Give the backbone structure.
Amino acid sequence: MGARVGEREQVGRETESEWGKSVSGESGVGEESMNEEGRERERRAVCKAFESDLVSIESNDENLLIDGYLQTKHPHDNDKVAADYWIGGNDIESEGNFKWIGSEQPFTFTYWMSGQPDPAEQDCVEIRGVSNFRWHDETCTHQHRFICEKP
Ligand SMILES: [Ca+2]
Ligand SMILES: [Ca+2]
């Protein structure tokens, strides 16, 4: 990610992601039959259309930037309900071994909610509003906004 001000603007624009939602909506017909990798690929394709990729959160600094943005955007508890955002990590390939899809590197920094990831068929990683923006593994086919980052 680039300069700090640029990062914040980037996260801001992309988490708004009306374009992300509309693209997801357009392909909603196939949603039930699309597998989890398909959903992840689709989100990634939206990011790539904006010369970016699903965000990897690989340091405390980067997490503070994104968390700070989300806290500002959803300042009250009732704003956090359903304020869930996919990020670019999953354990689709190997259960329990989460990695970033951009770098294909395993997670080093993590910001899991306590009790997460839990042993279930949940292979994608979301930032969950009601967990005060800590991470959950969740079923990849759920529809949420997602966060892209520019390299
Ligand atoms: Ca899993
Ligand atoms: Ca979970």
